[in-house]
Amino acid sequence: MQFIRTSRLYALALIAALALTLAACGNANNTSTSGAEASEQPSQEASSGKIAIQDELGTVELDKAPEKIVVLEFSYADALVTLGVQPVGLADDDDPSLLMDEVKDKLGSYTSVGSRYEPNLEKISSLQPDLIIADTDHHKNVLDQLKAIAPTVVLNDHLADYNMALDNYMIIAKALGKEAEGQKRLEEHKATVEAEQQKIKETGYTILPAVVNPKGFFAQSDHSFAGSFLTSIGYDDPVKNEEAYPQLSLEQLSETNPEVIVLLPTEENTIVKEWESNPLWDKLDAVAGGKVLTAERRNWALSRGLIGSEHIIKDIAAQLGE
């Protein structure tokens, strides 16, 4: 009898344990199902189509991906065309020839809103944009007026170095609702740079790009877009200046004595023509070594973006490569 009683108790315990196990499995399945359902639910921001962007001044909120965009720097036009977006307005200094050929070809028709330094606010307003992309330096005095016209994303473009320009690119891609496309194009850009680097066998020397006009020689230090891009691919900056675009006299240029100079002229006759008659010019290592090169300012200095930097490395590979 004792054995039968024990067996009965054991059976009851086994049944109870089995019931608890089944209940636990049921709860686990319920939890798993609800988790899956939760993961399938889009976020409130995604479902509403709203976009929040962090720019230089804080957070900019857009109700949806913008369709009518005004850009106030050449770099932003560079960014938009790589993302397949057509701006309705562009500050092109009333001179479309300042645009890179690739950008101009992809832009098609747009409305010029005047100078990058003093954009035409009335013309911008007439375009009824749903997004304006501005610069912290060039547009600091008209930001309030721009924001009164449309949501305005403010980026540090004019004083941006190469890495900052890449960050700006992804901010713009997010503002346009094209982060995935932006990331893909950024990866293509890095692959292009790496491929061109393979054509350059020697980079361990000093190279100085400079915008030159009749009044001065404006070096592009490693705090500038072009200068920092060159250091990122292995060249040295001879200027070592905290300013992005320090103006140098011939005597100061002689002190830095770069091994390569890349002139970015604004027009045919520049201050260099005057300097060429000075003995100091001939003593520069770049001059003595036959490495004073000329490149297009619009490609190297005006469009601080993916296409611009791809131009720079292709020029360097062509002139200093194999």
List keywords for this structure.
single chain; 322 residues; alpha/beta; Rossmann fold; 2 domains; 15 helices; ABC_transptr_periplasmic_BD; signal; Bact_iron-sidero_bind; transport; Iron complex transport system substrate-binding protein
How are the elements arranged and paired?
Elements: H1 2-40, H2 44-48, E1 51-55, E2 58-62, E3 69-71, H3 74-82, E4 89-90, H4 101-107, E5 111-112, H5 121-126, E6 131-135, H6 143-149, E7 152-155, H7 162-175, H8 179-197, E8 207-213, E9 216-219, H9 225-232, E10 247-248, H10 250-256, E11 260-265, H11 271-275, H12 279-283, H13 285-288, E12 292-294, H14 297-302, H15 306-320
Parallel strand pairs: 3-4, 3-6, 4-5, 6-7, 8-11, 11-12
Antiparallel strand pairs: 1-2, 8-9, 9-10
Helix pairs in contact: 7-8, 8-15
How does this model look, in words?
InterPro entries: ABC_transptr_periplasmic_BD, Bact_iron-sidero_bind. One of its GO terms (cellular component) is outer membrane-bounded periplasmic space. Pfam families: Peripla_BP_2. This protein has 322 residues and is an alpha/beta fold. The chain has 2 domains: 143 residues, Rossmann fold, CATH 3.40.50; 122 residues, Nitrogenase molybdenum iron protein domain (Rossmann fold), CATH 3.40.50. It has 15 helices and 12 strands. It has a 5-stranded parallel sheet with strand order 5-4-3-6-7, sandwiched between helices.
